[in-house]
Amino acid sequence: MDTTPQTTPSEEWLRSLRRDLHRRPEPAWCEFYTTARIVEELREIGVDELYVGRDALATGARSAVPDEETLAAWHERAREAGAVPEVLGEFEGGYTGAVAVLDRGEGPTVALRVDIDGLPREESDDPEHVPAREGFRSENEGAMHACGHDAHATIGLGVLRGVADSDFRGTFKLLFQPAEERIGGGAPIAESGHLDDVDALLAVHVGLDHPTGEVVAGVDDFLAVSHFEAHFTGESAHAGGHPNRGRNAVQAMATAVQNLYAIPRHEAGATRVNAGKVAGGTATNIVPEGAVIEGEIRGATTELMEYTREHAERMLRSGAEMHDCSVDIEHGGEAPSAKSDEELVDVVADVASGVDGVDSVVRRDTLGGSEDASYLMRRVQERGGKAGYVCIGTDHPGGHHTATFDVDEDSLAIGVDVLSGAVVSLDRNF
Amino acid sequence: MDTTPQTTPSEEWLRSLRRDLHRRPEPAWCEFYTTARIVEELREIGVDELYVGRDALATGARSAVPDEETLAAWHERAREAGAVPEVLGEFEGGYTGAVAVLDRGEGPTVALRVDIDGLPREESDDPEHVPAREGFRSENEGAMHACGHDAHATIGLGVLRGVADSDFRGTFKLLFQPAEERIGGGAPIAESGHLDDVDALLAVHVGLDHPTGEVVAGVDDFLAVSHFEAHFTGESAHAGGHPNRGRNAVQAMATAVQNLYAIPRHEAGATRVNAGKVAGGTATNIVPEGAVIEGEIRGATTELMEYTREHAERMLRSGAEMHDCSVDIEHGGEAPSAKSDEELVDVVADVASGVDGVDSVVRRDTLGGSEDASYLMRRVQERGGKAGYVCIGTDHPGGHHTATFDVDEDSLAIGVDVLSGAVVSLDRNF
Amino acid sequence: MDTTPQTTPSEEWLRSLRRDLHRRPEPAWCEFYTTARIVEELREIGVDELYVGRDALATGARSAVPDEETLAAWHERAREAGAVPEVLGEFEGGYTGAVAVLDRGEGPTVALRVDIDGLPREESDDPEHVPAREGFRSENEGAMHACGHDAHATIGLGVLRGVADSDFRGTFKLLFQPAEERIGGGAPIAESGHLDDVDALLAVHVGLDHPTGEVVAGVDDFLAVSHFEAHFTGESAHAGGHPNRGRNAVQAMATAVQNLYAIPRHEAGATRVNAGKVAGGTATNIVPEGAVIEGEIRGATTELMEYTREHAERMLRSGAEMHDCSVDIEHGGEAPSAKSDEELVDVVADVASGVDGVDSVVRRDTLGGSEDASYLMRRVQERGGKAGYVCIGTDHPGGHHTATFDVDEDSLAIGVDVLSGAVVSLDRNF
Amino acid sequence: MDTTPQTTPSEEWLRSLRRDLHRRPEPAWCEFYTTARIVEELREIGVDELYVGRDALATGARSAVPDEETLAAWHERAREAGAVPEVLGEFEGGYTGAVAVLDRGEGPTVALRVDIDGLPREESDDPEHVPAREGFRSENEGAMHACGHDAHATIGLGVLRGVADSDFRGTFKLLFQPAEERIGGGAPIAESGHLDDVDALLAVHVGLDHPTGEVVAGVDDFLAVSHFEAHFTGESAHAGGHPNRGRNAVQAMATAVQNLYAIPRHEAGATRVNAGKVAGGTATNIVPEGAVIEGEIRGATTELMEYTREHAERMLRSGAEMHDCSVDIEHGGEAPSAKSDEELVDVVADVASGVDGVDSVVRRDTLGGSEDASYLMRRVQERGGKAGYVCIGTDHPGGHHTATFDVDEDSLAIGVDVLSGAVVSLDRNF
Asked: What percent of chain C has pLDDT over 70?
């Protein structure tokens, strides 16, 4: 059985596209340049249907959307970077992402989901870091593709080319999802209606500590996750003259942080807490009247996440009370856990073993982290379809989310071959 | 004895000047508009010598100077607000402040120091707050005259008018000091040379919980103070996938904060600690690799401050070590404690009791807070001169450094009368 | 196949023996009454060899031995409770435990290990609590059989009776291990030499949330564990008059506790920390000069335990340093993790399914907790033997280690039948 | 004027009495041996009225009384140490202390209060420590006269001798107060009625960092104080198997301790907090279900103490809630602040300057600590009498409340001379 599509996109095209996206990382709901560039490519490749902006999303389900000012600044930055103005207009207000459809007649509906957002962190400028050395380091200071979503978007477009050039019969949907890092984009895509007729959904991630040449056919045990923002409010006072008149929001926050990480471990499995971003106070000589924790809670199951969240909320409130402050807790994005279906694991493992450059196929592995792909997978599974999450190994010098993360560009073609092969194969095997 | 100068500046002029300064609060070393406006007034009143920028300061003694970018942004803002460009140029790089001299022949050299900087905090927009209601609330968002330095600068200029119009014999120096709130401007003025021939130095503060009509002839027991910035560095990691690979700088910071406030109280008198501004981390799903505390340490004596600082530094280091992080501690501004000389207390008390609108004269009171005027006072006292710190009471609805702080403008004229009267009287009594 | 021995000890005998032991719980290395009672029974049943005190143990490998005074007090208490003086003498100094041997000619050497110590906790006197209601609640205040070791010792003696009455061929060794709760007795038994010729070792635990009638043929995934005592030393001072002269060991301890529980979770599996017993200070008006944490560290693997311990030690030292104290960390007992061998799981599962009263046989389950039986199992496995850990379900109203823990006495006979059946069967199946 | 009484008690008698008391320190309400010994001496000296046990106290006002078992054990220990059984009987149940009266006809009623309890701490056995070297170190392990109350009782008896031998006219009352260290005995003596006719009350303390030969005629600024016990209750669970089922009382306690010491300092003066004695948990492998803090709160004024207490109570509750525990807060002894009256300062200063061995008389000094003598002083002052608190300097190698505290026995005679002189003088000067 030969399931590899005839015409693979060139490695040069993949590399160049990936580097352009890498240079312009954009955080959740600000993927303006990114989506515009994707739409440009989709038009060039040619698709039968194309949904962008509000048409790609259940708009009311978005979460973790930045404020107007931030959105506007990133929108302007995309414009300055050369994004096509007419396309850009449709994304205004943070309606990023796209859904492309190839209609190839009778056959199953197969979907591939890739995520496209960057992270709010500085990229290394160490000359050892390839993007720095070869001139495609982030040009958006304070933002970075530190989780490989530039590679995901690139692989997605490559797969579209591959499927377009194949004898695939059926419908192929390619979903470009925004805001994965904030767990904000999974639900709006899942509830958009675009998944409701999908028979088989694949999602993809590169790396995850697997080297180039290794493919994991089914990733499981996503941690369920929930984001929160806790705003502590006390009262300011002159720190030298009237310390007793203050109610110290930074002390409240520090007490909460100390205890959040000390929530009892659970016998039933892994839990996680992270006070990932904190701030408080205004000046050295003022008792801090405000402080904030932006954090997240995870669990190996949704129940474990909820156990941890219940403790966390009590602790945030107790920390506030400890220093006579109040606290306002806002819930952010949330995602359940998920499992890959055996049928898809079979197909992917089978295809992968025949792909050039693949020297190791792992049937199943666990993720350890969280992913709002789980929203999409659950949607499809609940309606009777099958869903799977595939990992395309890539040598990465720094860990995910660190300043020196990078992908081995040789893995891009492998990703394209494995996934387009799987899509085409599903038409026959399903 | 009639020591009140003949021609007091009009209340209207005082109010209008103060409101203009209030509208444009500028933080430490960014008092570009403020100094320019002061220079404009000095030129109109007429002085014999005028030193600005580098000429007013021992430039190497500045501390807590913001980075170039911040300085440039405030400089540009001052320009846009209409500050005279030619004057502005001299302040570039954060060389703010001014020294004005009236030379009236033989006689003692008497100096008055006023401070001119604002605070980095939001001003209330509650309609109960007079500046909001009457339209002179801060136009520099995130900055506020929440400690009355707008009134101090205004009173200083009023006193200059009063002395200029009097029969004062001797030399009068008027010192406009930047960066008091960051304890950064006292030393550069003290070491500038301008104080080296001063026989009597007065400094002034409004309010301090004394109502309009009350004057404190000698304020004492300034808390010695020392600022610091502690930068914690750990290592980032994916918070869900690899929590064990991180070294959490926010946990280090929180541990330090919890313990800083718990430094043992001292039998010998008051001590203070404040972690006034903290921040850390980059995103909810990344173990925080960096965090910072901007804080301060105070003591009723320099020894008590040093006792507290020694504990604080050990705790900052232990907090870092607790989470396998490193910490870099930078020392900021520092000021000793100080006492007002009895001779000046006598003169001020005597003059104040004859001033219109003064209904209560307190000989001495304690400050509770800190002030880098203590640097100037010590300089003069060490060289054989006398120094005193005067409080002009003013009704203030909110506490110092809070969002609703304001001054009762009726106290401006009282301040001018008491201080110009004292300056003129010193010529005779000294 | 009928593997059940002919003559089972009577339920009445089992109940009465268990209740006597329950009434006299003794903590680690103080099992004087308990061992004496066991020896009395062994003599009555009749064994071929009997090792007690120093002869049962590698004495140098004991850990967590209490101080002389505590040992002496418990020894005296055992004497007063009627333990035979001549036997008692051999245990003096905390040399408790016993090894009994039945020599039945040619055949494999099969061993059964039961642990015999109680816990340092108060037993409930709620009339709902059966031991309280039926008059066999702990008579040793502050100590309790809250983990079922009274049942273990009883089952062990019952199995001996069963094997003695059977046609078993080979050598049967019955090991009564002290100090399991302090992870202090496993190593001394493991290294005593008594295990060096053992072909098959079984260990047993009741309950573990399995109901009466359920048997787990092989328990796995013991958490590796390590105990520690951290002694903090500061300096006392009058808390009112000279707080600054003190160095507060309770603050040091509290800082350490807060952070110990907040050691980062590990991607590779479960970790545990517990500051199980703490104390510090002498009087309300004295700054505490001493404090102690008795705690433990666990991990799903020995590596995970060591990861956690490394963090814990750094935190104990940093907590001390935070308050200018010193800390002395003593390591207590330690146990590796372990797995049951498949061959023994087969035998136990097979036997159990034929035992009266057993209605559910679970082949394998995980422990979640720790056990120093792992030392014995590893010793046997390293020398080529097989080892297994069996759970005999029992309805228990309160959780293990809580004040209302109790066992369902109907499970005693089940335990005896399953284990004696397995021992006898091993002679044939091995 | 010669106010020194004719017949001073011999230095040998003072030393021997003090050493006997030093050897047998007894904590609050357990001063059985001590009171018995005092009564013995009182009978030998001869007094006109003697009140002991219930007759010396407002029994309902006692606080910090230990449990029955502790009282009984100390009572038995006093009996074994040779205390006269018939006297001992009157103290049973913790009714210690005594009031002795000399009636010398017409004249003022003058009172002297001395306290008699020891502290719950180990005494040093360093040979440098005089009581250890010379054989009168504490024989009651775990208890120590670490604050000089052995000297106070001795001086009291010496003063009685001195006054008895003088030409004093009036009534002299000598009050032996129990339970000062627990702030438990001041109120019961104050409210006993014995003070209601007192014209002048003196209280005495040795040391306080004043050397032998120095006398402070009036000590002021006692910190107001309040004791508390906070009992935290959570839920136990197996720390390895079910950490999530526990509610950890030690974490609750540690969180509270960390924050108690971090209560904001107050602009109006000194505050103190001490978590002087803490404990929690039962075993390393059990999640702690209980914990306790015995602590105290002080303030330079009663208001400052109450400010601090309000914060402390909120924090104790928040610490409990943080870990889903409950907390029960019991209030213990409490004492207001106090000031010495000028009239008595005059008399004491005048007499002291004529006493042999006194080379420095300080009119007034502040205490820094707390004292429930303030209850007695306030009682007398409220009823129109005068009250003063005198410090007799003594060289003390270790600080008060430390293991090496000791008094210079040469100061005993000085104390007797100053105080008996003052009592006699008051008859004339009042």
From this structure: 97
**What are the tens digits of pLDDT across the range A119-143?**
999 999 999 999 999 999 999 999 9
C242 touches chain B (CB under 8 A): yes
**B8: pLDDT confidence band, cut at 50, 70 and 90?**
low
Quote the minimal CA–CA distance from A330 to chain D in Å.
19
pLDDT one-digit tens code per residue, C220-244: 877 889 999 999 999 999 898 889 9
Please check the confidence at residue B1 and state whether its pLDDT lies above 50. Answer: no
pLDDT-derived band at C2, boundaries 50, 70, 90: very low
Coil, helix or strand at residue A298:
strand
DSSP 8-state class, residue A286: B
Q: Contact C275/D286, CB-based, under 8 Å?
A: no
User: Domains plus CATH for chain C?
Assistant: 11-222+338-426 (3.40.630.10), 233-334 (3.30.70.360)
Contact D265 B258 (CB under 8 A): no
pLDDT in the model for residue A420: 97
| Inter-chain CB proximity B277 and A294 less than 8 Å | no
Whether the model pTM is above 0.95: no
Of B258, B264, B272, the CB nearest to D258: B258
pLDDT digits 0-9 by tens, B140-158: 999 999 999 999 999 999 9
Q: Which residues of B touch C268 (CB under 8 A)?
A: 244
Tokens for C91, please give them.
């245990």
Beta-carbon separation of C265 and A270 below 8 A? yes
Q: Which one has a higher pLDDT value, A221 or D377? A: D377
**Which strand (E) or helix (H) includes residue D225?**
strand D224-233
- Pairing mode of beta strands D170-177, D98-104: antiparallel
User: Quick one: closest CA in D to A310, which residue?
Assistant: D324
* Number of neighbours of residue B46 by Cβ within 10 angstroms: 12
Whether the Cβ atoms of residue C263 and residue C311 lie closer than 8 Å to each other: yes
Which residues of chain C make contact with A261, given a CB cutoff of 8 A? 261-262, 264
Return the DSSP state at B167.
-
The pair of three-digit structure tokens given for residue A48, joined into one six-digit string:
């039968």
Distance CA A242, CA B368 (A): 8
SS3 D292: strand
Query: Residues near B86 by Cβ (< 8 Å), separated by ≥ 6?
Result: none
Contact B307 C259 (CB under 8 A): no
Per the CB < 8 A criterion, the answer to whether C374 and C336 are in contact is yes
> Over chain D, what is the mean pLDDT?
93
Residues of B within 8 A of A119 (CB-CB) are 282-283, 286
From C262, C266, C318, residue closest to B321, measured CB to CB: C318
Model confidence over D155-172: pLDDT tens digits?
A: 999 999 999 999 999 999
Task: Report pLDDT for C8.
Answer: 61
Does residue B262 register a pLDDT over 90?
yes
What is the sign of the dihedral through the CA atoms of C323, C324, C325 and C330?
Answer: positive
CB < 8 Å from B in window 343-402 of D: 368
Determine the distance in angstroms separating the CA of B290 from the nearest CA of chain A, rounded to an integer: 10
C209/A contact by beta carbon, under 8 A? no
Strands (E), B234-350: 271-281, 290-299, 326-335
Q: Which of C267, C314, C321 sits opposite B244 (nearest CB)?
A: C267
Q: What's the token pair of residue A296? A: 């997240």
Q: Confirm or reject contact between C258 and chain A (CB < 8 A).
A: yes
Would you place residue D278 in the very low, low, confident or very high pLDDT band (cuts 50, 70, 90)? Answer: very high
β-pair partners for A419: none
* Pairs of CB atoms within 8 A across B/C: 71
**DSSP per-residue letters across B76-110:** HHHHHTT--HHHHHTTTTT---EEEEEEESSS-EE
Q: Measure D2 CA to nearest chain B CA, in Å.
A: 39
